[in-house]
Write a structure and sequence with these properties.
Elements: H1 3-18, H2 27-37, H3 45-52, H4 56-68, E1 72-75, E2 84-87, H5 91-122, H6 127-154, H7 158-176, H8 180-184
Antiparallel strand pairs: 1-2
Length: about 180
């Protein structure tokens, strides 16, 4: 491996780690995923510990969390005592797994609580109860809209077959366009 390849991999892993909190995992777990994702072959815990300067416990916890999210597979080659870990390679599957877990952790509880709170507020009279009910209905409408889009993504419908590819393609085209600030220079 060249120094350039290693430098780019290190930068990618650092960036991916900083994005971990966005998708609901620790930076360490995100770094482990990013490092495995950037490799053509799986790796064992010792390799991850050395490459990422992590403890055995940190690697073990990160791998368990990534397995729970469906983003990592493990296998023990015949005759070997080592377990090799590999990341999910399909980015659409990665996005679907992350969105599914975030939906379960965040949006589903919001909707469940709103179902209980709104009838209670409607039975209450007064401007404050009416104001809060209106605000919560707006939250409910927004979350339901996002939830319906996510459900289509997760079920492999139109959003996955067409929309996600358009979004990814649009992002790729956008990254090639000069920025407004570049034009002004």
């Amino acid at each position: 491996m060249t120094n350039v390849t290693q430098d780019v991999r290190d930068d990618f892993v650092r960036l991916w780690g900083s994005l971990g909190t966005f998708w609901g995992v620790s930076p360490t777990t995100a770094r482990v995923f990013g490092w495995l994702f950037s490799r053509s072959e799986g790796a064992d815990a010792e390799e991850m510990m050395t490459a990422l300067d992590l403890s055995r416990g940190a690697v073990s916890m990160s791998c368990k969390e990534l397995r729970d999210w469906g983003l990592l597979t493990s296998e023990r080659p015949p005759g070997s005592r080592r377990t090799l870990y590999s990341s999910e390679r399909d980015l659409e599957k990665v996005v679907r797994h992350v969105v599914q877990i975030r939906k379960q952790r965040e949006w589903d509880p919001i909707l469940e609580n709103l179902e209980a709170w709104l009838p209670r507020l409607e039975s209450e009279s007064g401007d404050d109860a009416e104001f809060l009910a209106e605000r919560l209905k707006a939250v409910e409408q927004l979350v339901e809209l996002a939830d319906s889009m996510v459900e289509r993504l997760l079920k492999g419908g139109t959003v996955t077959n067409f929309g996600l590819k358009v979004l990814v393609g649009g992002a790729a085209r956008r990254s090639k366009k000069p920025r407004t600030s570049d034009k002004a220079s």
